[in-house]
Amino acid sequence: MRSVLQIFSLALFLAFLCSGYEVMATHIRAGEITARRISTTTHRYEIKLTAYFDMQNGEGAANAQNSVFFTIGNVRSTGTPVVLEAPRIQPIPNIGNNTTQNTYIINYTFPTAATYRISFEEDNRNNGILNIGPPPTQNLNFYVSTILEINANFGLNQTPVLLNAPIDLAAVGQRYIHNPGAFDADGDSLAYHLFTPQRSGVNGAGINLQYVNPNQIGAPGQTEAGASPATFSMDEITGDLVWDAPVTKGYYNVAFVVEEWRDGFLIGQIVRDMQIIVDDARNDRPLVDPLPEICVEAGTFINQQINATDKNGDKLTLTSTGGVYQASLITPALAKFNVAQQGSQGTVTGQFTWQTSCNHIRLEPYDVLFKVEDAAGPNANPSLFRKLVDMTTLSIRVYGPKPLGLKAVAATDPAGTAYRLTWDAYKCQVVGAKIVIYRRESCSDIPEDVCITGIPAGSGYEEIGRVAVNETTYLDNDNGNGLRPGVSYSYRLVVEFPRPGTNANEPGNLIGGGESVASDEFCLNLPMLMPVITNVTVDSTSETKGVITVKWTKPAASSGLPAQYRLFRAVGQTGTAFTQIATINTNLTPGAADTIFVDRNLNTLVNPYNYKLEYWYTQGGQLVKLDDAETASSVRLEQNAAQPNQVGIKWAALVPWDNSNRTHRVYREDKTKPGTFNRIADVTVQGPQTFTFTDDGSDKYAADGIVNITIVKDSTYCYKVETVGSYNNSQIKPAVLYNFSQILCVSSSDTTKPCPPVLTLDPLNCDSLQAHPEAFCNSPTFTNHLAWTYPQSVGGKDCDPNVFAYKIYYARYEGDTPGLIATVTTPPSPLSTTYDHQGLTSFAGCYFVTAVNRFGSESAPSNLVCKDNCPMYVLPNVFTPNGDLKNDVFQPYECPAFVQSLEFKAFNRWGAQVFSTKDVNINWNGKTNSGKDLAAGQYYYEVTIYFESSKKVTTPTTIKGWVQLLR
Q1: What 3-state class would DSSP assign to 85?
Q2: Which of 88, 624, 798, 816 is 20 to 30 Å apart from 117, CA to CA?
Q3: pTM, to two decimals
Q4: Matching Pfam families, A to Z (predicted)?
């Protein structure tokens, strides 16, 4: 049985054969609608239909088409669309292939910004079209539509225009190519896809016709190269419509959509319905040489040769279309295309020239279409000859010139360390363009490719600011925070360009976005004015006698000596409760042992530690702090999950240098030589903080001898890890930094952590406190009392009873990551399960507790417990602003407790606002905000208060009441 598709195709084909190409009143072959905004103040657009009529079989009807009707409707509205009549402009009588081009134009002001469909319909299509139905196709009307998005964010946006006529001859058995030559003057990105031809529906909408792709008529067919089946496709990026290759001669209609995209948003689309005429041809199509994409700096003169050939020696005509030739689409200078010997046989050469300028910079490339068409040569039979074409596209990207002359020098700034950047005046002074400043730490090359503009992703540069294109300087003080002293910073510039209608130059500005190539790097190879910590290494692991050695760099010698280092320590890798542990005076004498401190009597068994270094110098006879070095923690080693008869470990260090992409060293104690650690593995690590290793007993490092073991259950094994890192800065010595963790002893059966404790927090009795507000006023700090229990079992599994310590974590706000604030290690026996968090400015905060076993393995967090303050704000109901210094101002009783902010408003009896303030204590003196005394009487107030809470975003409390003003 024949398929439905075969029967449909055969019926259409027979109808075409019976028609003999002759129809009475059918004439429309192809067309599309475009729109262009023509007003800067209103939504007024020029709407144009470009239609192509059959002059062989419908000349009378074509000539009579003096006007057409547009239907315009809001896509998202059910209202009745507008119907407008548009007159015909002077037609082009014959563009080839017995086709005339007609344009119809009308100007229309859209009522509001919205999404509109503009459509056109007209009877009749050609008869005998083979791939649409139902037949006869002369009874099918022709319909196309365009979606226009009117949006203030798009400026003076206009649709693309299609510069290449949609009528070409195709030859049976030969590859056919068509490109619409779409050009978008706004520089928007264009995309293409096939679409089903339509007829008109209700209220300007379209209804799909019965349609099959042309390659399925006479299927399967084969390509020009002999592959089967024949193919029909459209390149979504270039817009090349390729049919490789027709099987059956006749008329075919196809449709496609040209989509307009900006910054990832679809902002409009055009439907083109076009006709392909397929005939037998005793002829081979000509070929035009393909052209690679070119990328040029604005101001470059392009001189490109175009070559086409015909193996039959036919006469060749080489033409070109593109927006670069049209003054209405780009600003001068326009491109030119010259063919010295048009119509020459076998070979033809053209010369494309274009003097680019700053006005031509844009994000998307310019596409220039070159088309070669043959004509009968001396060896051809004119009666059998059919003209054939080939085409190619030259894609040209025009980018902004590279910014030049970038330099940076130290600048005086209240924020601290700052640098003043300067550069040469930019070559392309386009209104609305911005110079974008990028910075990274340390110097770095980036790949240079003229087809890649801007700063490549992953290069480490971050935008720090942008200025107008006519500026030549920028102060970098890290947005008022001050830069890190002594750090070598690298800077680059990129210029970003606006789109049309987005700046004061509209509508003349035709720049379509885009950017420049990045400037050359300017790198500040600065001396290290500020020391940096280089080592926090654990020398001894003990509950009470642990030792950590801290080292740092010696800064460059400068005035202001003598100087001083001050070293601080906090418990925990993220600890912030720093305590000063050392003061070291220095004259920066080379070789002096003043950049090292051995920290003793620590609990390195349970705790990691965090260190901070301050550097002070002499100014005016006084020591003045220059800055803080970035904090650095000790390496913390913990047990990690592993299979039976294996031991898993993991380690982490929060340090300013880079420990990733390095090979760390793992050591295991040799049980035959207690206290001796054998290097068993080198671990290449990737992540920035936490690294892992699983020990199966084998020794993978042979240089210090092979010590293999068999890991057995319930036996204890001890490990330490040496991290390897670097600042990746040639000025910091040593270049490679080595730091040891504490020693961790674990059992292969200790694969689970201790159980998490259960935490409670003493509640506040707000009623009692409100009755005695002096408790708030007289206490400068507050204390939270924590208590917890350790479970015997969880989920039916026994908990490790050998808890060695508890760790307490605190966060000021819900959602923040709690940091370690204390470790409870020393009994009163049994081990204490309470803790007082003292010195708080409010009760608000969140806590959890963890348990640590004898191997240093830490449990999961306990339940998170958060606590809030008792809001305290009580107002009197009378005040007497009479100047006797008694009750002269309206303010809260006692002290307002835990008030973050408030807004107070007072109203008279008629509801008119007479006073307002954001003063937490209000302090209303009975006057208006302008200082006018208010009459005695009753006033009403409303207070909106934000109290300090454990939540970052709090819900306001509103208090309403009245107060009597007496004089």
Answers
A1: strand
A2: 88
A3: 0.56
A4: CHU_C
